[in-house]
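Review form for a predicted model. The reviewer records the input and the model, then writes brief findings.
Reviewer: anonymous (R2)
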Amino acid sequence: MQVDRTIGFIGAGNMAEALLRGVFAAGVLRPAQCTVTNKNNDERLARLARAWAVRTTRDKALLMAESEVVILAVKPHDMPAVLSEIAPYTTARHLIVSVAAGVPCEAIEGCLGAAPVVRAMPNTSTAVRASATAIASGRLAGPDHLAIVRTLFEAVGWVGVVPESMLDVVTAVSGSGPAYIYVLAEALVDSGEQAGLPRDLARALVAQTILGAGKMLTETGEAPERLRERVTSPGGTTMAGLEALEQGGLRAAVRAAVTRAARRARELRSAPARTPAS
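Model under review:
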């Protein structure tokens, strides 16, 4: 489905480029619909213009005038300054989409007034169009706004709609989740090498194993515990390995990681963007 809106990207980093790559590949947007700006990196803007044929500008007033959907692809600590810059040009016709962790819709709405706001929490797998993204609406955003955001992010992976109150835990599970998987991958590769495998072979085996396990989860629809049971024969090698993981406290460590990451997301949220001075 094509989105028939003009889109402005504030922020020209990896997330913005991954979204551009995904929406163009999926046919959701055309380059002529997109305008990109950033804080102070003209070289980055020039590269995006060459790579994707999008319009670029350093003039946020111009971007706001030309854009119906505005994606705030900036770091949380940059959000107050960005909101202050665009507040004079924001109207009810704009849909504001934020990918900044820990900045609630209420804080953005407090700065921008009548514009509907939707938060999106993708992860770094956006770069390979395999993100897990949760979206949540602010008080002024309706089903049509959510549908637009859903279409944009489905171009780079899976999308689910959640209450905003769940986004801290979403951040801890799927936002930070790729890093947890990479730690497991590191440990498997290192262990395979120490046990005698060439490192390149161990890495290839681990990468394909993780890819295959993910496809089993997504394509069979079966619960992870059921899939685990299906590959665990009594007295076999997998059972022996799983017993070692349980003895090593794997589940407790994962629970601690999610709890701590969710707490950090709440801490970020406790310092919301300030309302611009009049």
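Findings: The CA atoms of residues 43 and 49 lie 10 Å apart.
Further findings: Residues 272-278 have pLDDT under 50 and may be disordered.
Recommendation: see findings above.
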